[in-house]
Amino acid sequence: MHFDLTKEQSMIRKLIRDFAEAEVAPGADHRDRTREFPKKIFNQLAELGMMGLPFPEQYGGGDADTISFAIVVEELSRVCGSTGITYSAHISLGGAPIHLFGTHEQKEKYLTPLCKGEYLGAFGLTEPNAGSDAGGTQTTATFNENKWVISGSKCFITNASYAKNLAITAVTDRSKGINGISAFIVPTDAPGFTVISNYEKMGLHSSNTTELVLENVSVSENDLLGVEGNGFKQFLATLDGGRIGIGAMAVGIAQGAYEKSLQYAKERKQFGQSLSNFQAIQFKLADMAMNIELARNMVYKAAWLKDQGRIFKKEAAMAKLYASEMCMKVCDQAVQIHGGYGYMKEYQVERFFRDAKLLEIGEGTSEVQRMVIARQIGC
Ligand SMILES: Cc1cc2nc3c(=O)[nH]c(=O)nc-3n(C[C@H](O)[C@H](O)[C@H](O)COP(=O)(O)OP(=O)(O)OC[C@H]3O[C@@H](n4cnc5c(N)ncnc54)[C@H](O)[C@@H]3O)c2cc1C
What residues are in contact with ligand 1 under a 6 Å CB criterion? Predict the structure, then answer.
């Protein structure tokens, strides 16, 4: 057992750290204010070969491991949470279900353009009346004249305005409960499909969050993803991987907030000395450093288990839960260390604080993570 990154993982960390400092950080505050989507950054990430990082080379991917994916999410989120969530959702929610459950033809048709970065990946599970209780899906798909006809709506879907198609869930046989839910790949420009991007969010302003409305949208038999009736199970498996992405985002945002706080504490003088000379501030920074380290180890362990082909459900839920709650606390303390200036936009920790809250909600709330862990430990 050792804790060192491999040569490839270290190279990816350096590449993305440098890229994030040079290309992502400078416009992050501006994008937060204007809500401008970072399209150019994703074109650049495509040129760097990052848009299909953990997927097979056969489909244009980078054949890298999950730890490398987590490192990229972490480094992007360290300077811009919106860029971090966009990337994480593209890979772990957009590409992953096609990689895990798609046929060879579906992978060639849908995964390859995602890996090339031609458009972004997205995933539609949540509905207005089915959030934590995703088994309560109301969207329906009816088989009619060799086509599936889908009607319903989805809410809070990341990246859909920039996706040419996405996987969604729909009920194909209501009498079978969660075993009557199936997954489909649906083109976003299909007649009857509307993507609405109107939300006014607390944070992650330059990420794209949408409502989807499907009115008798037709897809072919070949667009069923995986096995009919397995959609719910497939999406739960997808979310296990997605939680590693959210955990990595939390580590990145917390790291960014901590670094800004350490720097500020050294520069800001009160009572004739730097804030960093006060033990009360030192202890806050020490706790931040320790908790970030712990969360990072948890995220990398869950990623490592996944890479070994081992069961990682419990570890992914623990990593996501611990890292997201840690991130919220670290951002709270970061604002505190900055005092009144922390409450202002200028010092950026205010943005980190707003962005962090989503991590306790998306891809399963903290309460849902505790339910998953409780089931895994045999409650
Ligand atoms: C910015 C953003 C991006 C998102 N991106 C996506 C996406 O790309 N794709 C997608 O499908 N979804 C996405 N979501 C949706 C997200 O996954 C859901 O918001 C989340 O799962 C919670 O569902 P809900 O909002 O309906 O809350 P509810 O399920 O209504 O929960 C409300 C509260 O009740 C608690 N609760 C619910 N059930 C229980 C229970 N049994 N025991 C205890 N407490 C409970 C919850 O923990 C929460 O605190 C996104 C959400 C946001 C805000």
Answer: 89, 93, 123-126, 131-132, 156-158, 204, 209, 358, 361-365, 367-368
